[in-house]
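REQUEST FORM: STRUCTURE PREDICTION
Request ID: SP-0412
Submitted by: Lab K.M.
Chain count: 1
Length (residues): 345
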Amino acid sequence: MKKKTIIIVSTLVFIVLAAGCFLAKQYYHITKSNFTSLDKESHAFYVTPETEIETILDSVMVYYEMESKIAWRLTCKLKEFKQIKPGHYKFPAKFSAREIVNRLQYGKETPINLSFTQSIRTREQLAAQMGKKLLLDSAEVKTRLDDSAYMAKFGLTPETAVCMFIPNTYEVYWTMSADQLFERMHKEYNRFWNEERIAKAKKLGFTPTEVVTIGSIIASETNKSFEYPTIASIYINRVRKGIPLQACPTVIFAVGDFTMRRVLNRHLAIDSPYNTYMYKGLPPGPIRVVRPDILDAVLNAPETDYLFMCANPDFSGTHIFSSTYSKHQAIARRYQQELNKRQIK
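STATUS: Completed
RESULT:
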């Protein structure tokens, strides 16, 4: 009888210990580690509003090994996990069942880096870029860019709206709304246009948006950074003297054909406020978004007597600057001859 009791007790102890070990192991998987990266690296996932739980799990399982399906199912049941919040989620090389459920259930996103360059020329292009990089409809962005009342909240107009989008890399949430995007870009715009830069612009006789407009023309004229300040001085001198800017990039913007390599007389006859051959002063707004270094080149432009510039006839991508029309005309003739020689139309 005693021997039988010992066996029963031993069996019960073994069962309790085994159950305890099993529960302890599941608790570990639930709270500490249940997914291990196959390549020991972290991985990111984009979850749209239509994504189902099983779909995201399948995506995760491409890169991770699940240590316990029981822990996963138990966690889902205990947390009543039935719906995923859309977002961008990045998981470490090891993470628990609870961590993935908590993050997906409550939308604890991982920020993304939102980057864009000054290749963006129009509001349509800007809206399209934001629609590609963020989980929002590009039409929502375009509608706001075109809305005078909406842009007035930021001290801008539809024509100057792109001023707010300064090319850089920003940490944002992929699911941010269009309004949140504009609020964030306005915050960055104000951060760039600090008291020192505003004072420099005022000293030159320009507003921040006018500086951006000048910078946008420079960005369209050259990619030679050493020329930025000199070109800025030319446009500043022309505005001050009431001389038309006669900037070809503004005419191209008015035409809307950004593949154009040569501005002809018929293009100069286009009646547009962006045709700086026809109208004096600056155009209504920038003809592209502008990098910070170009804006600073405008703000720190040197004092020169230059009024003219012409692409170098050697096609090096540089320009030749002149203070007299006669010298400029001679260089322009050489450049036109080279264009004809190369059959560039």
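NOTES: The first strand starts at residue 35 and ends at 37.
Reviewed by: T.R.
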